[in-house]
Amino acid sequence: MSPSAVTEPGSRDPPDSKSPAITKDGQKRTIYHLDRHLHKDFPVVVSGKGNHLFTKDGRTIFDTTSGAAVSCLGHGNERVINAVHKQMTTGIPYLASSYWGSEIVDDLCKELINGTDGKMAKVYLTGSGSEAMEASAKLARQYFYENDKQTPRVNFIAREGSYHGNTIGALGISGHVARRAPYLPFLMPNVHHIPACNAYRQRKEGETDESFVARKALELEEKFLELGPETVIAFIAEPVVGAALGCVPYVPGYLRVMRDVCHKYGALLILDEVMCGMGRTGTLHAWQGEGVAPDLQTIGKGLGGGYQPIAAVLISEKVVNRLSDGSGQFVHGQTYQGMPVQAAAALEVQTILREENLMQNVATQGAYLEKRLKSLLADHPHVGDIRGKGLFWGLEFVRDKKTKEPFDPKLGVAQRVSDLALSPLYNMTLYPGGGTVDGVSGDHVILAPSYIVTKDDIDYIAKVTSDVVHQVFQEIGSL
Q: Which among 50, 9, 69 is positioned nearest to 393, based on CA atoms?
């Protein structure tokens, strides 16, 4: 597809099998940059506009994943670019938060608090989701330390099959087996995991949502009792699990009962919405779909839409009051926190989301994406589950649909699907993930298009995804 076709999404048709084979032209051959994979070349991107990325070798790629569920407004948004430029021209893209305040930083924080309908009270700005998770863990511990310097609350409860970040603390909280493995000797021993909320793999035959959720609450309560309720700081969960499990959503009622168990024993509820938040699931915050506000919440990715590196911790009034009535400070800080240029980008992104009512588009197009994916792939013998919310959808692949047996990890099914989608045959991104079942076995891909997609875009995304999946399994069947 040529760049000129970008303005006419309805005219796009998936390329046929006679398209040229993938070549090395325009592929990445870096010498000095340590890439994510040292033995793989990547297309070199030279520009982007809307839902499209343009490569050095003349290809036009439809970005179906918003990078890693980041570019919620697509690429090249002039309003956000101008907002960043305006802040840069003030001469203060950066301020040391230890000494100075910033009006635009406070304006962003006000916008974020308003977006929670006043359920949260203050915002702590960071540069990445991992940093936000580190901050939330420390803030949760300090909440109890303020009242008792000898507090026995030292334990966190998190879930298997979740990913909360790459820093040592955030990785220690995570339940992602493969990413934890090289660093196990460094990780915190005071994090304890319970099963995820994965209805596809855990629901018993005939089990209702209410019964399933009650069983999940019991798992959490039993862990509290095992550890000693007085030793638990918080329970941490992604409302919709992103990269680790492939868009596995909470079951209705789950967030409420888990919060109730936490509060029964005086612990905090921390929700990690770095990937699934800021509009991705059809409400600004995923927890708003159930009306259950956490004590602490992390956000990122869609907060700045990729125009600046920014994330945050949203803090409830009770946590703020504990600090205010105690030491009056959060014993934590980073050089690049609360930068005005980061705030300028994020404020403009959030303003656009609100002014253009993009949450409605996420809900509308998300429902249509679900319909199209299920229409094209629900009967495929190797598509075990199609799940998600809003514009955040995952496909889980299985060798046997009845038993839900996964493929041998050596086949690299999800990566094969992603690689074929990105090839010149299709020119579209799909986000691959492995370890979906037990941290080692299991394959899924994620679709997380921008909030500006149209019905025609969704038709295109679903058709290409279906064609890619069918082709990959035809090739696997011939091995």
A: 69
pLDDT for 160: 97
Cross-strand bridge partners of residue 159 = 194
Report the C-alpha gap between 351 and 227 in whole angstroms: 44
CB 315 within 8 A of CB 124: yes
pTM: 0.93
pLDDT for the residue numbered 3:
36
At residue 33, the pLDDT reads 79
* pLDDT, tens only, 20-54: 333 455 555 567 878 788 888 888 899 999 999 99
Residue where the block lists tokens 């046929």: 16
Q: Which helix (H) or strand (E) holds 191?
A: strand 191-194
Kindly report which listed range (36-40, 232-236, 409-413) carries the lowest average pLDDT score.
36-40
Would you say residue 370 has pLDDT above 60? Answer: yes
Domain positions in the chain are 3-76+358-477, 81-355
Q: Single out the residue of 108, 365, 129, 363 nearest to residue 238, CA to CA.
A: 129
- Domain 3-76+358-477 annotated CATH 3.90.1150.10: yes
C-alpha span between 427 and 51 (Å, rounded): 12
The closest alpha carbon to 351, from 315, 304, 312, belongs to 304
What token pair was written down for 182?
């090289």
- Give me the phi and psi of 131, to 5 degrees please: -65, -40
Parallel/antiparallel/unpaired status of strands 383-389 and 240-241: unpaired
- Domain 81-355 falls under CATH 1.10.10.10: no
How do strand 443-447 and strand 392-397 relate by DSSP bridges? antiparallel
Answer yes or no: are the C-beta atoms of 270 and 235 closer than 8 Å: yes
